Each structure stands twice: as C-alpha cells, then as structure tokens.
Amino acid sequence: MNDLERRSFYSFLGLYLASSFLFLILIGYWYYVAQKNALENEMHYKLQHITDVKSGEIIMAHMQGKTLKTMNVPKDIILALVNSAGVVVDGTLVLKNIPKQSGYLHENGYEIFVSDAPREHLNIKYVVAQSNTLSRTLTNLQKSVLTVMIIVAIILATIAWVLSKLFMKPIREKVEQIERFINDVTHELNTPITSLSMSANQALKLGECTKKMLNNISISTKQIYDIYRSLTYLNFSTKKDISEAVKLDKILRKSIEYYRPLAEIKRIGFELDAEGTILTIPESQITLLFGNLIGNSIKYSSPKSTIKVTLKNRIFTISDEGIGIEKDKQKEIFEKFKRGTEYSGGFGIGLNIVKSICDKYKVKIELHSTVGKGTKFKLFFPSK
User: How confident is the model over 115-171, as pLDDT tens digits?
Assistant: First the structure.
C-alpha cells in the first residue's frame, strides 16, 4: 500500500475500532449495572424477608409465652438479635457499632438489613440479617463481564481488520487501474512524441521536410489527437453536445481516410461497403465512436491483413483478421481501464467510450471474436 492507502486503511480501522469499543464498553457497563441492581434488589428482598419471618416468630413466642426457638437461616445469612439495651443477645453482628435505626446498610463487604419489626417483644428491639454473598457475586460478575468484553474486543478487532482489508480492496484495485492507466497513456504518448521529435530534428538538419517526414508528423499528430479526444470525452462526458441529423456513411469514409496512413504502416487495407444512412447524433461523438473501432482494428490486426467495414440497413460492421479476444475477457472488454490483451498497448478506455455512446443513443452493440482469427463488432442503429 502507498502512503495514501495506508492512511485510509488505518483511519477506517481506527474509526471502526474506536466506535466498536465505545459501544462495547457502554453495553458492558449497562449489562453490569442492570445485573448489579437486580442482584441488590434480590438480596435486599431476601434479607428483609428473613427479618420479617424472624420478627414474626419473636412476636408469636412472646404472645404465647413460649421460648424462642433457635434461629434457622440459610448458610449465607448471619442473623443477630439486639435487645433494647443495645446488646447482642443472639447471633453475630458484623457491624462495629450497634444500629440505632432500621434500614439497609453496607459495611465491611456485607449487605445488612436492620428491622425493628419485633417492637421490643421479648425485649428484642432489632433483628439484623447480614450477608457478604452479594459482594462475592458482584466480584465474579465483574470478572465475567470483563472476560467477555476482552473476548468480544478481540473478535471485533479481527473483524475490523478483515473489513478494513475488504474496504481497501476495491480502492486498491481502482488505484492500480489508475496507475496502470497513467503508465499506459504515458507509453502511448511516448511513441508519437518521439516520432514528432525525430522528424522535426531531421527537418532542421536537412533544412527541408521530405514526404516521409510529413507523413510521420501527420500520423504522430493524429495519434496524439486521438488520445486527447478520448481523454476529453472521459473527463467531460457529461457535457451536452447538440444532436443533429448526420450522414453516417460520409463520416465513416472520412474516418477511414483519417486512419489510412496509420494502417499503411502495417500494410493493412480496407474493404468498405457503405450506403447512405442518417442518424440524429452529435457529429463529434459518432466520429469518436467510428474512430475508436477503426483504431482498435488497426492496432490489433495482423500486418498485411484486411479490415472489412460495412454500413447497410442501419447496421455497421467492422471485422479484422487480428489476434482476437479470449472468451472469458469478452464480458469485461467494455469496462473502463479493461483491455482484452496486452498486445499493441492501448489504455483501456476506447471500447468503454464506444459502449457509453451506444448506450446513450440506444445503439445495440454485439461482439464476436475468435482467438487467432479476428474480431467483429456490429452496431445496430435505431430507426429514429
């Protein structure tokens, strides 16, 4: 990854982790607080219930003149009876000081409920129920919640890493496409620019321009102009061109003549059969469409071959005797920055422009290609 991609990757990862961990902490805290409140309420109810039962036993024993039975309480509960003089007469009191009023207390890790329900029957003023079970339970709950949060955090971090990779994958592919596109455009420009430079230098040395030099300058200029025209369409394709009724056969003949010098370098010939056809479309765009298809055919045709071009019954056909396109690549050949082959350069936008123009003006396009035999494009122009 380059620096920009790396920053994007770690920014997304950091944002995802920060938001996930914050949400996890909030969920963990909410769960702990909810469980803590539930456990506290349960313990308070339990302690109060035990003191109420014991208070009832004290009152009944006093009213019936019976001896108070030995206290029978759960193992996790410590019960203490305090008389009117503030002395513990039975059980154990964990409080440092004798309670002076009823209510809930928390001391030395114990939950304590002091009840004055006996009303000094049998000289018992308070029944005190005490338990440290809640503290241990809450400690275990904290450990459990923390353990689960750590495990979930590890899972979230793993998911975040994977998602960040998936998030960056299309960006990485797009960056690679753009980098490859820039390299291809640079390569494509290098040939005509070098040719122009050499022809200009030779003309300066000789003090005159030969026909061959002028031809090279003309071809190189056309190659640069084609690249410029394609890039202009790519960048400003949203610009509205004015449609007009144009003669397709006339534009087609002009396009073939425009590219004929380039075809002659490879000794490629043209067979043209075109009838008069009118279509409402911007002339610049139909010229660009024909130009890309003709230029492609020249680029991928074998030397000394023939390119056949027909325009009949509103059907345009161009077929070459070139290297062809593999079947598995034919589906993506119209995508931007996609090339059917690395042969003869190119930068993968010509057929994308063709498809874009065809879609815009409802022109159906078909591709037929066989590796080693050639490629045929058929365009079906609408009747109106």
Answer: 999 988 989 999 999 999 998 899 999 999 999 999 999 998 888 888 877 877 777
Pairing of β 269-274 and β 306-312? parallel
Nearest one of 314, 333, 327 to 379, comparing CA atoms? 314
Contact 341, 330 (CB under 8 A): no
Q: Give the total number of structural domains in the chain.
A: 2
Beta-carbon count within 10 A of 84 CB: 10
Q: What is the mean pLDDT of the chain?
A: 84
In order of 103, 155, 272, 334, the CA distances from 11 in angstroms are 54, 19, 58, 34
Boundary residue ending a domain (90, 112, 140) = 140
Q: 129 φ, ψ to 5°?
A: -105, 135
Cα distance between residue 306 and residue 304, in whole Å:
7
Range 161-197 burial, b when 16+ CB lie within 10 A, else e: eeebeebbeeebeeeeeeeebeebbeebeeebeebbe
Sign of torsion, CA 6 9 15 21? negative
Give which of 215, 302, 308, 292 is closest to 267, Cα–Cα: 302
- Of 119, 140, 161, the one marking the end of a domain is 140
Give phi and psi for 151, each to the nearest 5.
-60, -45
> By residue range, what is the domain housing residue 280?
240-380
Q: Residue 190 and residue 275: Cα distance in Å, rounded?
A: 38
Characterize 221-236 residue by residue with b for buried, 16 or more Cβ atoms within 10 angstroms of its Cβ, and e for exposed: ebbbebbebbeebeee
Q: Among 127-136, 197-206, 264-273, 299-308, whose mean pLDDT is lowest?
A: 197-206
| Residue carrying structure tokens 């049998």 | 122
- AA letter at 33: V
Q: Residues 6 or more apart from 182 whose CB is under 8 A from it?
A: none
What is d(CA 275, CA 268) in angstroms, rounded to the nearest whole number?
A: 23
